[in-house]
Structure formats: C-alpha cells, structure tokens
C-alpha cells in the first residue's frame, strides 16, 4: 500500500530543507545583540540547534530507508516499515522542537501577548502531531489501537506532570 522508498526520497529533501531553516534561524538569532541578555535567548538557540541535529538525522534515516524491491518477504517489508516509522518519528520531533522555539523567540523580541497566543496554538499542534504519529504507528505496525492511543496521551501527559512537579518544588 505504501511505496516507502519513494516516500523516503521525497521526505529527504523536505527534512533537509527544514534543517537548514533551523540552523539559519539559530544563526540569525545569535546575531541579535539586544536579545543576548534575555533568558529566552538560550532556549531559542538550543531548541533550534537540537532541532537541526534531529532533522539532519531524520533526513539521513529517510535517505537510508531500505529500498528493497516489492516482494512477499515479510522480514524485508518489516525492516522497511520500521525504518520509515523511525524516520517519521524523528521528523516530527525535530519539527516540533523548531516550532517550540517560536515562543521564546517572540518573548525575546518583546511580543509577549503574541507568545501567549502561540502557546495555545503550539499545544494544539503538539497534540495533533502526537495523534498523527499514533496513526502512523497503528497503520505501519501490528500495535493495537489502545497502545497507539497512548502515544499522544503519554507524550503530552508526562511532560505536563513533570512540569507540575518541578514548579511545585
């Protein structure tokens, strides 16, 4: 149903371009002298640079997705499917980190009310991304629906619990 080698080739270019934007954004922010003294500066730079590294890794995974010819070999199809799934998961993670850098960037340039609005938009994006990843896991593996449903719940819930605990301490 899925032509995974072709998809891997398409996504390699997309993810590589996004990685370039991440590192270019970090370079641009690093050149802003007025922003260096703000606490959001380190957060924005760190999120963008880690995003760059993850997106580059994802591009490499997409380009290395096994290109076995279509066959009835279940092992080869399983390897191909898992390689594509791992590349997709790292793509989502790298993209999410780059998007999460938007809030500290907006705070850094004194657009706090816009940063607050973006917080809710970014939360909705992270939930949608978790659901998207859960659908991929459901469609490309033998995992049952309940296990796949746990992906967005744990992906949002565990960091929220960690945040609540650390703020309390």
Proportion of residues in extended strands: under 5%
Shape: flat
Largest sheet, in brief, is: none
Structural class: mainly alpha
Instruction: Please work out how many helical segments DSSP would assign.
Output: 6
Mean pLDDT reading? 84
Measured between the Cα atoms of the first and last residue, the distance is 50 Å
Helix-strand pattern: HHHHHH
Helix content: over 70%
Description:
This protein has 169 residues and is mostly helical. The relative contact order is 0.12. It has one domain. Helix content is 82%, strand content 0%. It is flat, with a radius of gyration of 18 Å. It has helices at 4-30, 39-63, 74-100, 102-108, 112-140, 145-168. It has 6 helices and no strands.
What keywords describe this structure?
single chain; 169 residues; mainly alpha; 82% helix; flat
Could you give the topology of this structure?
Elements lengths: L3 H27 L8 H25 L10 H27 L1 H7 L3 H29 L4 H24 L1
Helix pairs in contact: 1-2, 1-3, 2-3, 2-4, 3-5, 4-5, 5-6
Quick rundown:
This protein is mainly α and 169 residues long.
